[in-house]
Amino acid sequence: MSEPQENSTSPETLEVGLKGYIALVVAIIFFSGVLSSSKGWITALDFSTITGTFGMIKGANQSFTFLGAGGTGARYAFLFGLSLVPAVMLALGCIEIFTHLGALRAAQKLLTVILRPVLGIPGACALTLVTALQSTDAAAIMTKQLRDGSITNERERVILVAWQYPASGIMVNYFASGAALFAVLAVPISLPLAVIIIMKFVGANLVRLYLAFFYKGADLSE
Amino acid sequence: MNDKTLLDLFVDGARKGWTVGINSILPNLVMAFALMQILTITGAMKLIGLIFGPMMGVFGLPGEAVTVLLTSWLSMAGGVGVAASLHSQSLLDSTQISILMPAIYLMGAQVQYMGRLLGVSATPKRWWPLLFANSIITAVISMVIMRAFV
């Protein structure tokens, strides 16, 4: 086997400044909704506060947003979809900034340390996991490269894919399409997201257990 | 090195949001609401509700909720659209939407990601059923967890 290819994901070469960690914390606070019921200047750090509200149109007995009341079918779906676009633009704009400031690199650095005990895969997979939160396609290619470069063995590759497959690209998908349901959730928008991420780890470990049970110590690559 | 300001970056991201919104969310919502309109008018929705009532009842959901999961399986945004439509018809309340929310994504777009993830990562086909089942299992567990939260 050839030497593992040079890989920018090794923990030694990954520089994460204080800025990256601050960006990660701010990103979590911003999207978590923990400040949604706060008052004053601090709510500038709350996603739903910055998203704002549509103006109301005064009817005879009641006020409405531009969606009105009683719409159905494709026409209602269109206006409803249009009403979601501002929140999606805000979310993806902010994710772009947090990413630039190093929030994802900070998450990657923190993940690198815990991947072996938590998932049984090499720390070098951290970049793939973090990438998979935003881009299914980029992460899929990275997964192949990790296997081709023998950085992961077959067992580790299957576990890595098992982590990615449920709720793939979740950070983009959740804040894009999920926006349609944010207003009607009975819980903070961060709670379902947290459950999703936890379930990714649970699922990967179910697969890890399955492989440990049915293919104990076997080389799976034949 | 990088002469883009944070404001430029925001605008780049917001532009992506516009593209996703107009090219993905809107068409998916129109599809879902039109489909639900047909299911409701023909009475198929009532039938689905009766047939899947007992199964979905385990998770504190009405039988109609199965349409959310079936649509999610093909498209996450489609599943969300169906859930929004059922909510607008008062067939799902806030609590039930919350229970469904993680499951929509955990088992979401499996068919599409079969190609984009399992295929592109060159994962051998013999692992696909395992990975497939795993996503469904995580979705089922998530509904049990969410039910405990709301």
Verbal overview:
The complex is a heterodimer of chains A (222) and B (150). In chain A, helix 4 packs across helix 5. Residues 1-12 of chain A have low confidence and may be disordered. Chain A starts with 17 loop residues before the first helix and ends in an 8-residue tail after the last helix. By secondary structure, chain A is mainly α. Chain A has one domain (16-214). Helix content of chain A is 59%, strand content 2%. In chain A, strands 1-2 form a two-stranded antiparallel sheet. By secondary structure, chain B is mostly helical. Chain B has one domain (6-149). In chain B, helix 3 packs parallel to helix 5, helix 4 runs antiparallel to helix 5 (94-106) and helix 5 (94-106) runs antiparallel to helix 7. Classes of the chains: A mainly alpha (222), B mainly alpha (150). Chains A and B meet through helix 3, helix 6, helix 7, helix 8 and helix 9 of A and helix 1, helix 4, helix 5, helix 6 and helix 7 of B.
Number of domains of chain A: 1
Report how far apart the termini of chain A are. Answer: 15 Å
Give me the Rg of chain B, rounded.
18 Å
Query: Helical percent range of chain B?
Result: over 70%
Q: Runs of chain A with pLDDT <50, length 5+?
A: 1-12
Count of all domains of chain B = 1
Rough outline of chain A: elongated
H and E string of chain B: HHHHHHH
Q: Pairing-aware structural class of the strands and helices of chain B?
A: mainly alpha
Tell me the fraction of residues in β-strands of chain B, as a range: under 5%
Helical region count of chain B? Answer: 7
Chart the SSEs and their pairings:
The complex is a heterodimer of chains A (222) and B (150).
Chain A: H1 18-32, H2 47-51, E1 57-58, E2 63-64, H3 73-100, H4 103-119, H5 126-132, H6 136-148, H7 154-164, H8 170-176, H9 179-182, H10 190-214
Antiparallel strand pairs in A: 1-2
Helix pairs in contact in A: 1-3, 1-4, 4-5, 5-6, 6-7, 7-10
Chain B: H1 6-42, H2 44-57, H3 66-74, H4 76-88, H5 94-106, H6 110-119, H7 128-149
